[in-house]
Amino acid sequence: MTDAKQPVQRLRITFALSGAMRFASVLDHGRTWERMLGRAGVPLAYTQGYNPHPRIQFAGGFPVGYSSDCERIDMLLTREMAPEALLERLAPQCPRGIALIACQAVPIKTRSLQASLQAATYFVRCETAVTPERAREAIDGLLEQETVPAVRTKKGKQVTYDLRPLVHSLRLMPSEIGELQMQMDLKCGAEGSGRPEQVLKALEIPYRGLWIHRAAIEWASEKEAP
Amino acid sequence: MQIADDRLDILFSAVEKPGRYVGGEWNSTAKDWNTVPLRIALGYPDVYEIGMSNMGLAILYELVNEQPDMLAERFYTPWADMDAALRTVNLPLYSLETHRPLREFDLLGISLQHELTYSNVLTTLDLAGIPLLAAERSETDPLVMAGGSCCHNPEPMAAFFDLFVIGDGENALLEIARCLLSAKQTGDGTPSRQRLLARLAGNQGVYVPALYEPRYRQDGVIDGIVPLSASAPATITKALLPELTPHPRNPIVPTIRVIHDRGAVEIQRGCSHGCRFCQAGMIYRPIRERSHSDTRSLIDEIVSSTGYDEVGMVSLSSSDHSSIAPIVRETMQEHADRRLSVSLPSLRIDSFSVELAKMIQQSRKTGFTFAPEAGSQRLRDVINKGVSEQDLFETAEAIFREGWDRVKLYFMIGLPTETDEDILEIPRLINAIWQLGKSIRHGRAAVKVTISTFVPKPVTPFQWEPLTDRATIQARQRLLREHIQRTRHIQLSWSEWDATWLEAILSRGDRRLSAVILRAWQLGARFDAWHEHFQPDIWRQAFADCHVDPSFYTKRERPFDEILPWSIIDSGVSTRFLQSEAEKAHRGELSPDCRQDCHACGILRSFAEQRSAIVPGTWGCP
Q1: Which of A30, A73, B296, B362 could form a disulfide with B357 if both were Cys (CB 3.0 to 4.6 A apart)?
Q2: Domain-embedded: residue A225
Q3: Does A178 lie at the interface with B, CB-CB under 8 angstroms?
Q4: B256 — contact with chain A (CB < 8 Å)?
Q5: Looking at the predicted structure, is the pLDDT value of residue A51 above 90?
Q6: Among partner residues A31, A39, A210, which is closest to B304 by beta-carbon distance?
Q7: What is the domain class of B5-237 according to CATH?
Q8: Contact B23/A25, CB-based, under 8 Å?
Q9: B517/B510 Cα distance (integer angstroms)
């Protein structure tokens, strides 16, 4: 086999998700990016060992069906590349549904994307019979509560948790008839992440179609990195 | 009309694996519908992950999309959750590329590779809103066409298809498409479906079942298959591609994980070993090898167009390719920086294969695969599997010594002339290989054994044989279980009788089975190849409802002069050759590899003209 080459650079790409790629799991994204980077001939670093893997990392999972303007991926390279050059080389290799937004070089040893997650802003649109007036009341009601007990399924078990601290803000937006649109600022990270579906459930808003767009993620600033 | 994204999104959120239904994968081709005059939808009657692993469809998809005046899109059979979701909101099955209802296409092509997918064809057509029976389709419905290895006996599915393509699909499909295109473009409007089908019936490899009527004797045996029109040829000669074309070179890269999640290059079509149970070895004749340099450049193209980290060399017997070792070595050197791995399915049992496996570090985890097929030398001679026990043990020893912990063994039971003595040789081999592994690899050695039940197939020397009966098979499975050493390091898997039984009936069935298939589907037969869906009682009920006796198809040994349902299909291999191989089988005589010594199977006589037009030596025939 070839000599294991040491990584010399970490590049961080911000990208958007739409269309069919909204339904890819984190494993699907891993293979998709490996192949994109392979086609682009990017000098990726690999893990050691019998089954070497390219050293790429996402911030976390990709909830099924969410579109996004703010996903990130980190990659370690064995040869330095200018961020603009990487974008240029990679852009023609993106499948429909992945669009590159930005690329920056970050220190090789840095806080992982996953550990940098702080909060996310979602735009939520749902088909529902609930009126905007009724939704506004529900939102105000939820925000007034100290605690909002909620239940989610974790490894097949029902777990009760408090949704309230995960909700930073909720805002109803102008909507078509038969629909509701709202902006949700929710905490995300290792100590828990708010999910828009869970918020709708707590607001007692049943829906038929649901579209969730992750518009922005708040990351811990680089200065705070260890 | 394209189905609105919002409507589909609701379905995608409701199903377990939306990735099967979204489309848009890398290298998938969505041409402009309105400027391309001929539209073909190609599909596989099983779930996406299986259908996407089919090489034939990948070749045809790319070939069609290379034509400026045609487009090809894809479809697969929706799993039960999507089936229900589509029906609930009353949406028809659509193509993955542009989300258009299948019934808006001119032609649907469905690949038939396995008999237990037949009921899925009906599910698929029904979801598409296309009448199940070819006879009930109107001028506005697409033509529904089948291709693939099962078409060598098209009769059980005759009622559901307007036409079948027998043989290599590459040129055959393009010829059909050209016919449709010129029919569409002629001034006096679209010709009637019937006229079009009559015209297509003249193409090589095309079988239009409505143009024939089988007649039966009192005892149920076919008396004759009568052409009903002057345009129906007396026999249908399979379509033959004289030389492999460089396809697919830009294969679709699925986003979700599929069965064969890698690039694939077909290095050879056809096989010269002449195993008598093997349909593929008969119907894909002659051997057509892709040259060293063509293979290399195709691999390079696939790797750069897909970004795959693994390439499989596809053939019926990889070790037979005349340049396989240099191809593998050069490929691995060329793409070393990308960690490209190479896989070689179907290696022979010999030392050369061990060298190849070492080169590619093949399947250290899943294991090296051996297919001795039968336990005793006598029975291996009957089936013409030219492997000796010495080959097997020497290869197994080499594999263990080279550092493999696991081996996989494939056997069949229920072979013609088989006795309990033959059966008892299987556990002897398994136990000996396990002991050998243990002595070299110690506690790490593991043997995985698959013992399937032999199903006699059309166009093989065993096409006249009965299916071994249930009691015998189950007794032999018990016998095997008793004699195979009990240890967690030997893992066994078996064929289930009911699935074997149904496959055997559908493989060599006649046109009367169309009614049974329809009835079984109406009673709820779905995904019969899937253990969790298969309901054999439904099929038993369907046979009873249709007054068809399944044992007519399973239990009878057919005399050599019987008119078999597929007798109008000429696969190029002569019945006389199959019969002589059957007789040799019963005498336990071998027919060695036909690349050295031609056994006059009939291929060269059937396709002399095609051979004379290509570079000598392209075919493996002497």
Answers
A1: B362
A2: no
A3: no
A4: yes
A5: no
A6: A39
A7: alpha beta
A8: no
A9: 12
Residue extents of the structural domains in chain B: 5-237
* Co-location of A66 and A123 in the same domain: no
Interatomic CA distance for residues B433 and B439, integer angstroms: 10
B460-474 tens-digit pLDDT: 999 999 999 999 999
Q: How far is it, in rounded angstroms, from Cα A215 to Cα A49?
A: 38
- Min Cα separation B265/chain A (Å): 18
Classified as helix, coil or strand, A119 is strand
* B507 pLDDT more than 90: yes
Instruction: List the B263-266 sheet strands across, edge first.
Output: B263-266, B310-314, B341-343
User: Which residues in chain B are contacts of A20 at CB distance < 8 A?
Assistant: 19, 22-25, 255
Beta strands in B22-174 (DSSP E): 38-44, 70-76, 107-111, 143-147, 163-165
The radius of gyration of chain B from alpha carbons, rounded to an integer in Å, stands at 24
Instruction: Output the six-digit token pair for A99.
Output: 């669009």
Query: Does A83 fall in a domain?
Result: yes
> CA nearest A126 in B: which residue?
B10
Shared domain check, A125 and A99? no
Say yes or no: A153 contacts chain B, CB-CB below 8 A: no
Residue A68 inside a domain? The answer is yes
pTM (two decimals):
0.96
Which of B255, B262, B310, B337 is best to mutate for the A interface (most A CBs within 10 A)? B255
Looking at residue B253, the DSSP 8-state letter turns out to be B
Find, in chain A, the residue whose alpha carbon is nearest to that of B341: A51
- What CA–CA distance (Å, rounded) separates A11 from A100? 13
Residue B212 has pLDDT above 50, yes or no: yes
Mean pLDDT, rounded, for B118-142: 97
Question: For residue B362, what pLDDT is reported?
Answer: 61
Please give the full DSSP string across B295-353, using - where no structure is assigned. HHHHHHHHHHHH--SEEEEE-S-GGGSTTHHHHHHHHHHHTGGGT-EEE--S--SSHHH
Q: A73: domain range?
A: 9-110
Contact B18 A1 (CB under 8 A): no
> How many A/B residue pairs have CB atoms within 8 Å?
77
Query: Per-residue pLDDT tens for B421-446?
Result: 999 999 999 999 999 999 999 989 99
* B531 in contact with chain A, both atoms CB, cutoff 8 A: no
Contact B22 A27 (CB under 8 A): no
Residue B16, chain A, CB below 8 Å: the answer is no
CB atoms within 10 A of CB B51: 24
Decide if A4 is inside a domain: no
Residue of A23, A93, A212 best to disrupt the B interface, most CBs of B under 10 A: A23
Which of A58, A77, A110 terminates a domain? The answer is A110
The answer to whether the peptide bond before residue A107 is cis (omega within 30 degrees of 0) is no
Q: Are residues A19 and A66 in the same domain?
A: yes
Q: State the total domains in chain A.
A: 2
Determine contact, residues B277/B383, Cβ cutoff 8 Å. Answer: yes
Instruction: Identify the pLDDT of residue B363.
Output: 58
Domain of A197, CATH number, reads: 3.30.70
Domain boundary among A70, A95, A110: A110
Do A103 and A142 reside in the same domain of the chain? no
What is the per-residue pLDDT across B444-459, written as a single tens digit (0 to 9) for each?
A: 999 999 999 999 999 9
